[in-house]
Amino acid sequence: MSNKMEFGERFRLCRKKAGYKTMSQAREATGLSTGAISDYENDKRVPTAPAIIAMSWAYGVSTDFLLGESDEQPKGWS
After folding, report:
1. CB-based contacts of 64: which residues, under 8 Å, 6+ apart?
2. pTM of the predicted model, to two decimals?
3. Distance CA 48, CA 56 (A)
4. Model pLDDT for residues 8-41, shown as the tens digit of each residue
């Protein structure tokens, strides 16, 4: 990953593509606080490994995709 901004943008994209329109919905799916989700999406904090795994599972993407190490989009994304 080249910078934190890339992660924030990618995290927001994954949340929305997974159908979670609000951070409250994402909180329920990931177990992360809405504050943490907001901080990650706005590049104010770097997520921990457990947070990355939780987001990956909830959003149906690989950790590599979430971290920007892969640009291969999940099936069903257009």
Report:
1. 70
2. 0.85
3. 12
4. 999 999 999 999 999 999 999 999 999 999 999 9
